[in-house]
């Protein structure tokens, strides 16, 4: 099979899967969508492993029958998460109770800050790699897409100062330190000035 045919059938499959996010697809319709190629199953695996699409089979979900496929989200899993592997990912998600460690959103439920989206969890670093964090499981945690994107797509109103402070005061010491670290990274000059002032 030529490279062009291979790419062509993969593109067709990708487009078909993306048009059917969240719907269980049967192997016959996927083979048809691929242009009828015999190796459509291999193309599906490539979309999964090389491009990071979250395509589930009966190996991932007990309610799927052999030969059924389900694309969970149009967004592929980032390369880093693919690199850490399924088992480590599952370990971190399990340890974190399938809950975003920044906002508390629960996997699969509607997101508290954006009820139009179902919460999808990613694996993120507790301490950024640039700050000395590693890929060791103890440095990894579950984060929802919104927190993982640094809340850049947050469309809802910003929290009030009062609410924000109440949340931070209720958080654990470790989380407060994390907030502090994040703020210092974001406002290094202000942090230095404040420390200088408090030194008197
Ligand atoms: Zn979150």
Provide a descriptive summary of the structure in words.
The chain contains 9 helices and 7 strands; from the N terminus they run H-E-H-H-E-E-H-H-E-E-E-E-H-H-H-H. It is α+β, with helices and mostly antiparallel strands and 200 residues long. It has a 3-stranded antiparallel beta sheet. The longest helix has 16 residues, at 3-18. The site of zinc ion has 8 residues, from strand 7 and helix 6.
Secondary structure: elements and pairs:
Blueprint: H1 3-18, E1 25-26, H2 27-33, H3 40-49, E2 55-56, E3 68-71, H4 79-84, H5 86-95, E4 110-111, E5 114-118, E6 121-125, E7 140-144, H6 145-148, H7 161-170, H8 173-186, H9 188-199
Antiparallel strand pairs: 1-3, 2-3, 4-5, 6-7
Bound molecules: zinc ion.
Strand order of the largest sheet: 1-3-2
How large a portion of the residues is in β-strands, by DSSP E? 5-15%
Structural class: alpha+beta
What is the count of helical runs?
A: 9
Q: Choose one word for the global shape.
A: elongated
Largest sheet: 3 strands, antiparallel
Task: Quickly describe the structure.
The protein has helices at residues 3-18, 27-33, 40-49, 79-84, 86-95, 145-148, 161-170, 173-186, 188-199; strands at residues 25-26, 55-56, 68-71, 110-111, 114-118, 121-125, 140-144. The protein is an alpha+beta fold.
